[in-house]
Amino acid sequence: MTIRTLVNALSLTVLCSEDQLDQEISGGYASDMLSCVMAGAHKGNVWVTLLTHLNVVAVAVLVEIPAVIITEHSPVEPTVLKKAETEGLVLLQTPEPTYAVVGKLYELGVR
């Protein structure tokens, strides 16, 4: 499944790196603890979180996560968007809570 498919299926807002939407997603991970993401997420996962600081970009790049879904319309600073764009990281946003997003991802077959 591509990031673009997720964007369309979940009505997500693309915040940056729109040119990267055709990357494949291999699974999903949800956490607001950076150390848990570093230990538990895998290359190609989509990460669901309400965190929006610069370290989200750093961890996503480290783990080779191509896209982050930011929940609850958490505001994202321009510096974070710029860094994510530079790294080719797709940042997506939704007003829905993490729990609802994870359920929808599961229904779409994202494990």
UniProtKB/TrEMBL annotation:
Coiled coil: none annotated. Residues 7-105 form the DRTGG domain. The keyword Kinase applies. Keywords: Kinase, Transferase. GO terms for molecular function: kinase activity. The keyword Transferase applies. InterPro entries: DRTGG, Ser_kin/Pase_Hpr-like_N_sf. It comes from the Bacteria. This is Serine kinase. The lineage of its organism: Bacteria, candidate division KSB3.
